[in-house]
């Protein structure tokens, strides 16, 4: 790539993925010599981009966090994706809604007309739905620190508060973050336990990536979301319900959100959902949503507290339909 300006912009675009780039790999991508690459990196530093350099056989470059935010290089799809994401601020993250609106206003000011038209089309066709969260909010800085460690495949150390309130120090190889309803979970290989673990992010404090990189391990599940669902089903005293569905398991699987629980066949034309939830009321809401949107016939075997929650939900829905005030749950 002979044009210096285009080459530096391309270098910046690669570095802004926030992964570690080997020097030879980066030079090959840009079709330049290692000497030219070093010169281009110095030019980025002069422009305010903090590029870290590591030496040795595993040496290379990485864009680090700086004292100020330099200009970002976004292509059309990235700009629209960010704007759409800002319109629906991450649920359960403390203080992010107002910051998202400020960032969206700044981004809209600099979008070219063709991209602004695409964003407006999405906004006009979308009705956001906000659910009040009763759970503890996640600190945005903690969430970002974990995400960066996942992206960079760096070991992460943090303080973790368990169910009994005891704080322990954990050293993990972070794999993925999973947003599940009102809560965020980290899926990671725990070096102290030598096994896979899930961690509630609202219980994580003082996360610190120590710079030690690791090769990815094979997760013993289809994906991180499936692993979290599997781990939560094993938590004792978690609200549960047995739901019988008059449909083959393949048909039910298309209508039931995987995080609700485990679907198992019950003969060729029926299946059973072993459902779990953060609370009895949220479990009742989830079951009701499946019944209302799937067109399938559901029967709930119990337990009694879930059946009672379903009755309250039905009574409140009937009251609202009749113009009466719904009772608090």
Characterization of the model:
- The protein is of the alpha+beta class and 329 residues long.
- The protein has 4 domains: 4-63, Winged helix-like DNA-binding domain superfamily/Winged helix DNA-binding domain (Arc Repressor Mutant, subunit A), CATH 1.10.10; 76-124; 140-224, SH3 type barrels (Roll); 240-321, Alpha-Beta Plaits, CATH 3.30.70.
- The chain has helices spanning 4-15, 23-30, 34-46, 76-87, 96-110, 113-124, 140-152, 224-233, 249-253, 280-294, 304-321; strands at 21-22, 51-54, 60-63, 154-161, 167-180, 183-190, 195-200, 204-213, 240-245, 261-265, 271-276, 298-302.
- The strands form 3 sheets. It has a 5-stranded antiparallel beta sheet with strand order 7-6-5-4-8.
- The chain is globular and about 70 Å long.
List descriptors.
alpha+beta, Arc Repressor Mutant, subunit A, 4 domains, five-stranded antiparallel β-sheet, four-stranded antiparallel β-sheet, 11 helices, 12 strands, HTH_11, ArsR-like_HTH, transcription, CBASS_pafABC_assoc_protein
Summarize the structure.
By secondary structure, the protein is of the alpha+beta class. 40% of the residues lie in helices and 24% in strands. The protein has eleven helices and twelve strands.
List the helices and strands and how they pair.
Blueprint: H1 4-15, E1 21-22, H2 23-30, H3 34-46, E2 51-54, E3 60-63, H4 76-87, H5 96-110, H6 113-124, H7 140-152, E4 154-161, E5 167-180, E6 183-190, E7 195-200, E8 204-213, H8 224-233, E9 240-245, H9 249-253, E10 261-265, E11 271-276, H10 280-294, E12 298-302, H11 304-321
Antiparallel strand pairs: 1-3, 2-3, 4-5, 4-8, 5-6, 6-7, 9-11, 9-12, 10-11
């Amino acid at each position: 790539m002979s044009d210096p300006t285009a080459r530096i912009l391309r270098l910046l675009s690669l570095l802004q993925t926030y992964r570690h780039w080997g020097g030879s790999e980066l030079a090959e991508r840009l079709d330049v010599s290692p000497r030219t690459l070093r010169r281009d990196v110095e030019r980025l530093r002069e422009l305010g981009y903090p590029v870290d350099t590591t030496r040795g056989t595993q040496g290379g470059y990485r864009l680090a966090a700086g004292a100020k935010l330099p200009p970002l290089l976004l292509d059309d799809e990235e700009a629209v994706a960010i704007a759409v994401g800002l319109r629906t601020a991450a649920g359960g993250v403390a203080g992010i809604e107002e910051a998202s609106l400020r960032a969206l206003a700044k981004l809209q000011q600099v979008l070219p007309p063709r991209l602004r038209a695409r964003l407006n089309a999405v906004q006009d066709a979308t009705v956001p739905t906000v659910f009040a969260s009763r759970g503890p909010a996640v600190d945005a800085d903690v969430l970002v620190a974990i995400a960066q460690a996942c992206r960079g495949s760096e070991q992460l150390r943090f303080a973790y508060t368990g169910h009994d309130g005891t704080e322990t120090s954990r050293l993990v190889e972070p794999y993925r973050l999973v947003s599940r309803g009102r809560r965020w979970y980290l899926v990671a290989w725990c070096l102290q336990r030598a096994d896979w673990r899930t961690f509630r992010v609202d219980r994580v404090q003082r996360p610190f990536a120590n710079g030690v990189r690791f090769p990815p391990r094979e997760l013993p599940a289809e994906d991180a979301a499936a692993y979290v669902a599997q781990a939560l089903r094993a938590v004792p005293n978690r609200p549960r319900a047995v739901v019988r569905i008059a449909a083959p398991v393949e048909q039910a699987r298309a209508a039931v959100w995987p995080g609700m629980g485990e679907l198992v066949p019950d003969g060729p034309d029926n299946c059973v959902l072993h459902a779990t939830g953060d609370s009895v009321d949220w479990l009742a809401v989830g079951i009701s949503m499946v019944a209302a949107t799937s067109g399938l016939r559901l029967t709930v075997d119990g337990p009694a507290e879930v059946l009672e929650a379903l009755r309250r939900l039905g009574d409140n829905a009937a009251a609202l339909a009749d113009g009466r005030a719904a009772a608090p749950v």
